[in-house]
Pentatricopeptide repeat-containing protein
Amino acid sequence: LQPVDLEETRLVKLIRNSQEAGNLSEAMHLLQCLVSRGYQPHSVTCTKLIQAFCNAKDVEKAIEVINILESKGQPDIFAYNTMISGFCWVNRIDDAIQLLNRMTARGCSADVITYTIMIRSLCRLGKLDLALKLFDKMLKDNCQPTVLIYGVLIKALMVTGGINEAMKLCNEMLDRRLEPDMYLYNSVIKGICKEGLAEEAFTFLRSSSSKGCHPDI
């Protein structure tokens, strides 16, 4: 066992205490002291500090923390997801995409949380084409999508008139044995009917029922 470095332990504790007390400038100063003394920053400690800065809408300081972590340590998926979420929260989607690319280039693979954050934000900002491309990348990376991701994409497609694509995704979701909530499923049926596609609606209902999903409308 390696001996515990009391100075490092003390600094990490001080960073955590300052962050929890809301004294983020002091926490940042202590992190810089930690690094200047040759210690490797802890991903957990930095992630909490990134989250705190993002909550305070000080994304620039959060960027400083992730940069320190990248230059002196190794960010884990939790640190990256927190920073990506922070970018998306303030609609800096291009920065989020750049960080996603940088993250994967450093050997840290995106997980379902990463994709959920990005796809939801892209759809919210009206960038549906990019969201669908990212969804395709998710599938190619063998990252299993969730009902939430399908739901976000399906609803966005319904809004933009992409009924056929929405039906395709809904069927794909059912093929994966993912069961949508009734609100989502009924919305798809209503959307098909609204477009005057009665035959397609009945076909979709039969297909869905055979897969175990029975809408309540």
